[in-house]
């Protein structure tokens, strides 16, 4: 087994060794029960410090891939058994409900959501929509409406219980322990927690005002060490937390770099119909390699708990099949409500109004902070990403004045340098914008 490991190791750092061994375990090259070489044996063979191998072994042991058994040696277990720990997500959800003016949540303004009452009444007249556990998981009327609005022709399409449910299920179809995945930096904290839970190796890609930087993707794909990435996770519109929306030019550039590679693009269109940018997808260039997730929580209502997943057939049908051993399907009653909403003129007018209000609040707050000497961006969506001198000082300063904001650190897939806060500017009433801007600027200066 010593030769198997040394022949596979390209990156001789602790992280590189841990990733190599985990991939060998997942591939079956190191079956359960295999006795691993000693730390000193592997270090000598690789020409590195035993400390480096010890660090790799500790990482694998914490993930449940290997187990030390004293003098008997260290052995491969049946597979990773790391417990899920939403540690980043917990950090951005500490204050909700505890402060009078909480702008940390990333949730839509309830006053700008469509009125569900008349739609619910119409749907209720149709009676129970599920007569058999074997019915198709997606209502035909909803599937038709979704396919019309999809940014590319999806090979398969299903409905799940929200965007995070979709990300979770798609990730478990694509990513194994030790798999290398590419993410935006900064990005959504629960996604980073999810990738930690499955034992992925995360590579952070910086953003500019058009999306992921092409040179960063090129470098990640051309890295001499490590395995080929299995997935690239993107938020194509109103990226959380920066608000950046990917341009058509950038989508074409990224697709050109990914063409011919075994990398699945996973797109999380979490803002959906309240984003001002038009839907752009790498699926328009790489339909056979893209899975697109469209959420309706911020636009039509969080309690609908619905998101659609469409794209690569093997991934979408795989997760739909796996759901048969769990929830089976998402409520067809809620699907019928969504189908009605997608064809309702009053709802379209409500969404247009919401987009306009969110845009006005973003623009007003960004201008107000700029005038006060604070660097902030909020080009789309409901959030604002602002630089602060000290994250903790800024949070405490705002909390003392009854205002909640989300710390920036949990959004970092890799350190960004400057400190940040995410503020859900879409929740700030127009009449409070100037007063809140004063407090945000004061907190930003520390």
Question: What does this molecule look like?
Answer:
Keywords: Aminotransferase, DNA-binding, Pyridoxal phosphate, Transcription, Transcription regulation, Transferase. It is a single chain. The chain is α/β, with parallel strands linked by helices. Helices cover 41% and strands 15% of the residues. It contains 17 helices and 16 strands. The strands form four sheets. The protein has an eight-stranded mixed sheet, sandwiched between helices. It has a four-stranded antiparallel sheet with strand order 12-13-16-15. Strand 1 and strand 2 form a beta hairpin. Helix 2 packs across helix 4 (50-62) and helix 3 packs across helix 4 (50-62).
Structure characteristics:
446 residues, alpha/beta, Arc Repressor Mutant, subunit A, Aspartate Aminotransferase, domain 1, Aspartate Aminotransferase, domain 2, 8-stranded mixed β-sheet, 16 strands, 15% strand
Indicate the topology.
Layout (H helix, E strand, L loop, with lengths): L1 H7 L5 H14 L11 H8 L3 H13 L3 E3 L5 E3 L10 H5 L9 E2 L14 H8 L15 H10 L6 E5 L2 H12 L5 E6 L3 H9 L3 E8 L2 E2 L1 H8 L9 E4 L13 H11 L5 E6 L20 E6 L1 H4 L6 E5 L1 H11 L8 H11 L2 H27 L4 E2 L6 E5 L2 H10 L2 E2 L1 E2 L11 E5 L9 H13 L1
Parallel strand pairs: 3-14, 5-6, 5-8, 8-9, 9-10
Antiparallel strand pairs: 1-2, 4-11, 6-7, 10-11, 12-13, 13-16, 15-16
Write out the strand line-up for the largest beta sheet, numbering strands in chain order.
4-11-10-9-8-5-6-7
DSSP, total strands? 16
Radius of gyration: 24 Å
CATH class category of the largest domain:
Alpha Beta
Shape: globular
CATH architecture of the largest domain: 3-Layer(aba) Sandwich
Helical fraction equals 40-55%
CATH homologous superfamily designation of the largest domain = Type I PLP-dependent aspartate aminotransferase-like (Major domain)
Category by helix and strand content: alpha/beta
Helical stretch count?
Answer: 17
Number of domains: 3
Q: Cα distance, first to last residue?
A: 55 Å
Q: Which fold name is given in CATH as the topology of the largest domain? A: Aspartate Aminotransferase, domain 2
Strand content: 5-15%
- Report the sheet with the most strands, covering strand number, pairing sense and barrel closure: 8 strands, mixed
User: Which spans have pLDDT < 50 for at least 5 consecutive residues?
Assistant: none
Overall pLDDT: 92
